């Protein structure tokens, strides 16, 4: 049954990564500030969230890696524009479409029909916040 559900999700472009509640992040002058201490999906290594709205032109995917680094990416596949998921336990990202284009942590295409890399944004920890510079 889960195989059928997975195929259906890929057909409609449904990702596993959850959207971060608007009250847990802000955008000002091209800088995103995420309240890390309040984001349960990033409290564990291998977690991920995405941000959209609030003035963002394109959604952002934020990943906490297994080796405890944070990365932020443009969350729009360059093939069909679908969102992207972090693949837990692996150092890669995957488009949520049926084609499953795959990217590395530098945003480069590993495989699939993606037309080019996705943008990667600079991140840093400042106090209890994650800062993403767009």
Protein described:
The protein is mostly beta strands and 134 residues long. 8% of the residues lie in helices and 37% in strands. The strands form two sheets. The chain has an eight-stranded mixed β-sheet with strand order 1-4-5-6-11-12-3-2, with no helix packed on it. The chain has a four-stranded antiparallel β-sheet with strand order 7-8-9-10, with no helix packed on it.
Query: Uncertain runs with pLDDT below 50, 5 residues or more?
Result: none
**With helices defined by DSSP (H or I, 4 residues minimum), what is the helix count?**
1
Strand order of the largest sheet: 1-4-5-6-11-12-3-2
> How widely separated are the two ends?
40 Å
- Principal-axis shape equals globular
Beta strand count: 12
What is the beta-strand fraction? 35-45%
Largest sheet: 8 strands, mixed
Structural class: mainly beta
Summarize the topology.
Layout: H1 2-12, E1 18-19, E2 25-28, E3 31-35, E4 48-51, E5 60-64, E6 70-74, E7 84-86, E8 92-95, E9 102-104, E10 109-111, E11 120-126, E12 129-133
Parallel strand pairs: 1-4
Antiparallel strand pairs: 2-3, 3-12, 4-5, 5-6, 6-11, 7-8, 8-9, 9-10, 11-12
Concise account of the structure shown:
The chain is built from one helix and twelve strands, in the order αββββββββββββ.
Characteristic terms for this protein:
eight-stranded mixed β-sheet; 134 residues; mainly beta; 8% helix; 37% strand; four-stranded antiparallel β-sheet
